[in-house]
């Protein structure tokens, strides 16, 4: 099991086991300036693992409803940057704000943060002994204390969104990899997050199954979901993302709209695009 899988399992298990009373959802009046604040904002983020400096001053901001695709070579720090947004990694310096939460602050309420942020990994980590519906309703019931009937309604709606309305009673092993990944996306959506993070969610899938997952993500983008996609699907990134971030050696090396992939400004991005991964 890799670290991402481990973290996802822990997050699910935590959600399932959480015995704390639900926090009151306070309706928050949004001032004009608040609603215009970026949903995600990283400023000069540094992160090392031991002597390995992985993020060397990463800054970017994502306005509400926009999609950012992060591309770059393996080891350039893409997953680490994504994981820092959800505080699965704790940064050394800099600031991260997500939906009004100061993620760099040790006093952050993780439970609140994780309700606003959905994250989907390459490995889907569905519980094999639970039906699709049970996998999806688990966290809303445990974390939000949602009544079963309401959770099932939300499961039905999110399964519809990912094109699997007829699979609520199936078990994960009865589904293809692409279908399981779409259930994992539905599971995240059921928490009604304000931002979704996707870390190479199609890397383990063959091309046909990749297509069906990418279509779901594209529909979410069209529906106005704020998203960060770490992806190797360049055409997809160019089409769906409002902004592409090319990461190289722990830095935002080049950034721009999808068209930037047709006209790279740096030798490194040119090289990456011509040699692939
Ligand atoms: N939990 C960790 N512990 C130690 N090193 C890590 C950890 N996570 C990532 N790294 C290292 O950080 C670097 C960047 O990794 P990562 O963010 O996964 O890159 P990418 O997603 O672009 O392939 C790599 O050298 C990787 O080995
Ligand atoms: Mg990665």
Characterization of this structure:
The chain is α/β, with parallel strands linked by helices and 277 residues long. It has a single domain (38-275), classed as 3-Layer(aba) Sandwich (Rossmann fold). The chain is built from ten helices and ten strands. The strands form two sheets. A six-stranded mixed β-sheet has the order 6-7-8-3-9-10, sandwiched between helices. A four-stranded antiparallel β-sheet has the order 2-1-4-5, with helices on one face. The longest helix has 16 residues, at 207-222. It is globular and about 50 Å long. The two termini are 23 Å apart. Residues 1-28 have low confidence and may be disordered. The structure holds adenosine-5'-diphosphate and magnesium ion.
Summed up, the domain count is 1
Number of strands: 10
Beta-strand content estimate? 15-25%
Look at the structure and give the CATH class.
Alpha Beta
pLDDT averaged residue by residue = 89
Quaternary structure type: single chain
CATH hierarchy: architecture: 3-Layer(aba) Sandwich
- The arrangement of helices and strands along the chain is HHEEEHEEHEHHHEHEHEEH
Estimated helix fraction: 25-40%
Distance between the termini: 23 Å
* Shape verdict: globular
Number of alpha- plus pi-helical segments = 10
Biggest β-sheet, characterized? 6 strands, mixed
> Rounded to an integer, what's the Rg over CA atoms?
18 Å
> If you consult CATH, what is the topology?
Rossmann fold
Unreliable spans are 1-28
The molecules bound to the chains, other than polymers, are: adenosine-5'-diphosphate, magnesium ion
User: What strand order characterises the main sheet?
Assistant: 6-7-8-3-9-10
Secondary-structure content class: alpha/beta
What is the CATH homology-level superfamily? P-loop containing nucleotide triphosphate hydrolases
